[in-house]
Amino acid sequence: MEPEVGLHPDQGRVRLRTLVFIRWMAICGQTAALLIAHFGLGLELPLIAAFLVVLTSGALNVAQVATRPASSWLRNKEATMALAFDLIQISVLLSLTGGLTNPFSILILGPVTVSASILTRRSTICLSILAIVAVTADVFFYLPLPWPEGSFFLHSLYLYGLWAALVFTAIFLAVYVSSLTEEARSMGMALVASQMALAREQKLSALGGLAAAAAHELGSPLGTMLVVAKEMKEELPPDDIYLPDVELLISEILRCREILQNLAAWPEEDGGDPYNFMPIQSLVEAAVAPYEKLEIETVIKASAREDDGKNSSPEHTGPEHPMVERSPEILHSLGLFAQNAIQFAREKVDISLVWDKRTITLTIHDDGPGFDPQVLGRLGDPLLSNREYVQKNQAPKKLDRRKEEDGDHMGLGVFIATTLLSHTGGKVAYSNHETGGAVVQIVWPRHRLEVAAHPI
């Protein structure tokens, strides 16, 4: 599964067809407005100069369609340049038809609006600055509209007010609307990454079940082959030249049977079947095991909380050990939190699992540098990373090792884990421990995770 085109910053954000269609609509509107104003309302406009400006947009459309497929994606820079051309074209056309006194002067913000919807914030800011420059130029350099009943004059104070309104609108589009668009785009990227991670975990979880099914289906044919081979061996004389071949065939069949028996036992041993039921502690251990390291001590403790608030051993007192379904969402999320804790830890990671009649609580605490206080309240948002804070507080040698293992990322991991756990009813809280290190606490309503007693 690959991310949708246009979600990644390095991919196209808008199709050429879209911008070409918008430009053709603008050309038709500009042409109609010029013809109606000149012939319908009797305004003596500089039609030749105005239509030359309109024709430049048409020429650009024709050139773009002729040089590349209309279905191709424009990268951010290409789309920004195209919208900048449209903005300048509208500004020049306004300067020939009354400047800001033209009722259609608001259309100069059209390219900025399109940019705020599909392009990066940086591109929108650049186009907003260009729009402010163009609006300012149209205040001072323009041909007045030739009204039929003599000259029409707007007070300079009104023009300056209109200029201020357009400028503040451009700033609003650059800051507020583009921020909403960036957030929506980041969320889209994060959700795609979540789907990819979950699909991968589900495929891995299904391997055990597929292996068991294959072993079951192939068991009968191999049994038949073994019976036939043994009968052939009994019928052959001891000195027959084919006897060694038959014995080799029997040994290979037995070897295949042994392999299939191991495959059939695999789901029971490691929980490969996604529909297996297991104690919650076993699920946590299965999620953490792939990321354990010899140099980092990882301790997992499980206990039941009694009604008086005291913890006790799960084997003796307190509520029964919760039996849960082997969930790919939980396995992936807990594995990610454990991996981060082990990578950031200096010596030890403590994982405590506590349950009572109402809740199941899992706490992961490492002795690393902890979370950056400046981003602590926003952990769980997409594209938010704790890397810079760790780089400042981690030893160089440790940092180099962690960086090699962790690689470049966009801060999607925590968001993915938080989103997946929320689907299972879990609430995730992030904090820094008073003695140092990061703390991740996950609390589930017990009834959301626990299943009826099921033989393991």
From TrEMBL:
Residues 302-323 are annotated as: Disordered. Its EC number is 2.7.13.3. Residues 213-448 form the Histidine kinase domain. It catalyses: ATP + protein L-histidine = ADP + protein N-phospho-L-histidine. Keywords: ATP-binding, Cell membrane, Kinase, Membrane, Nucleotide-binding, Transferase, Transmembrane, Transmembrane helix. Its main location: membrane. This is histidine kinase.
